[in-house]
Amino acid sequence: MNQMVTAQWLLGGESIYWTSAGKWSESFADGALFADQAGADAALAASQEFVKQRVVVGPYLIEVEVDSEGPKPTSARERIRAAHNATFDIDHGSWTARISDSISD
Amino acid sequence: MYRYDQFDATFVRERTEQFRGQVVRRLAGELTEEEFRPLRLKNGLYLQLHAYMLRVAIPYGELNSKQMRKLAFIARRYDKGYGHFTTRQNIQYNWPRLDDVPDILKHLADVEMHAIQTSGNCIRNVTADHLAGVAADEVEDPRVWGEIIRQWSTLHPEFSYLPRKFKIALIATDQDRAALRTHDIGLKIVRNEAGEVGFAFYTGGGQGRTPIIGPLVKAFVKKEDLLSYLDATLRVYNMHGRRDNIYKARIKILVQALGPEEFGRQVEEEWLRIKDSVLKLPDAEVARIRAYFADPDYEKLPAFWPEFEAQKKNDAEFGRWVRANTDPHKIDGYAAVTISLKPVGMAPGDITADQMDVVADLADEYSFGEVRATHRQNLLLPHVRKQDLYHLWQRLKAVKLAEPNIGLISDIIACPGLDYCNLANARSIPVAQRISRRFSDPKRLAEIGELRLNISGCINACGHHHVGHIGILGVDKKGDEFYQVTLGGSSAEDISIGKILGPAFSYDDITDAIETVIDTYIGLRNDASERFIDTYRRVGIEPFKEKVYGSLKERRSAAE
Amino acid sequence: MVVLKNGVPQPNEWVRVADDATLPEGAKVIVSLERWQAERETLRQRNAAVGVSLKSDQSPLLVKDDLDHLSLVALEFPKFTDGRAFSYARVLRDRLGYRGEIRAFGQVLRDQYLFMLRCGIDTIEPPAEKRVEGYAEALKEFSVFYQPTNDHRETALRLRHGLAESVAA
Known about the structure:
heterotrimer; A: alpha+beta; flat; disordered C terminus; C: alpha/beta; TIM Barrel; 8-stranded mixed beta sheet; 27% helix; globular
């Protein structure tokens, strides 16, 4: 099973992924895939430096499966995190606007 | 409502600055995340799936219009333009940044609000009947005591590092609208045989992994002894509550382990030592606080308003809304209006900043500037003249806040679930949305009648699934979301814990399963006046089980 | 090691002695509850002061009859989230009338320091890696107190109703 290292920015809390360059990205697609446990553990250990520097919070490993469309997390939880949003249409920005539309017609 | 004096105002500012300092120390590396976490939680700040989440206290659910406008301002400036009302009468913001939180708290302090003890292993923000001061049959206004408890519990030096969180609720009528006995302490204001007013202590209720209906531990505590009896209860819990296992750390486990009598005896022993101490409440302080909760300047109005009766008859939609969304008021000519935060297809409890502003305006125009949050994640305008209801309804309708569904199947309690929450196993909100869409026909809603459907995304039970007439619990099966159904729970005065129907349903099957439960009930009920819960109690779980799993099997074989 | 009293660093006069170690002659010693219970008679005969150290699952009621002979009771905070000792301090002061020194040790954080003083704790042993000045700062964070404890800080309630003995400005 492939794995990735994920964490959260300390200031904003957004989910982030450890890249092959040894940095963090908010895009799941940028995350480095580790096919072996040793590689995953080494990346997790390296990521701890950013915890010490107070840049990120709580790095951990997640399982990732790769299919024809590319990598995706195996658990519902991690798929939702990777999307950086709730799964339903929050749409609060245009909600009020939409309500007034529906009233006028 | 209560207003801060110089002491309260100074205190909240000092607390805000203390938190600002804690954030600075975290960012400077003086505090590790492990050390900071309990500190930020005690100020309502979580780190959730996508961002931080800030839970703001609304003590005993009461807000004024100015505070509501400030909540709207915060939603716009520091969040994504909306907020979420919770089952503990609080509001939470899903997207603030850590470094903005001290400023948010400062804005809150400007309108006499805070986020103190909305999380963490301490005494949480106290909740109360949302019809406090409105219900004709109440013994005494519980908000007075809510405020006294708020002050007593705020940064309590002895009880800020308890084994686990501690929730207190207050009611003062026989009807329970606050899920009293699901709390660590449920306080019912009662009159004893001598005619004195005091408190019945239901101690050790709770939901979560081990749902327990709080037993009556002491039938009558005098008003002046309220704080000493609370202190004694908390001291016994703080010293003897389990700290080795997070799932066994709530006071309910201690009360069950000792037995309510023995637990009560230990509290009594402690209480007798301290009841005549500095904790005795002086009448002057009770009177000072009570004065803030004096009735607003009600008008003398006729109880019967012919035009209102005609409006209900002529506009069926308005009539339905009045039936579902208003409660009687102790003063003739007034009604209490529930603003549904459960429009079909939306997230239960969510409200946009624009809607908050409208609610604030309506509170000023129609309800003496007062708004309440209810434990079922709705809002309430407590004192509206009946002659104003039609206009108010039209104004609410214009901003999608007039769903006529209070107490009906689409008035769903739902926790944030896996869409936001770090602890969740499964999503709650999309399930609520699907169910509310399935039951969106107002006639069908009315035909089904009173029904409490509650959804939790994990066993922590923030969505009160154990005490829903129908409860839905999200569970994780190898990374996939499944939903267990319970039937027969109630959080009202006829409190009961729901029973599990059977194996859990997939995300795609759960709505159909609920519909089968409803159809089964309609088929089984004696007549339209028999509520779901009454039918369930009469016939038991078996007929529901048979139908639901039977039809699931049919659908599966039809699909193949 | 220093100890803090009202936020001010003080030299530590007490020696913590392991259960199997010899008692240093003439020094003030802190022993475990187990050693106190085993050697109570000898320890009471000492010329120098004796204190007892309680773990967070050891209630001060276990030494309630010995308090006259104990100049110090040390309460452990094994993790800062374990708040039992806040109640133990209050039990010692309010119920058992203890007037000797109450000391907190273990994972004692500055954000809890004011609570500790309010519960009747006199001195703390701050963890070595923590900035000691922070503890003094923490004592200045609040001027308003809601709960009456026996620490002589006036409560908002008493100040509101003119009940305070010396009304603070």
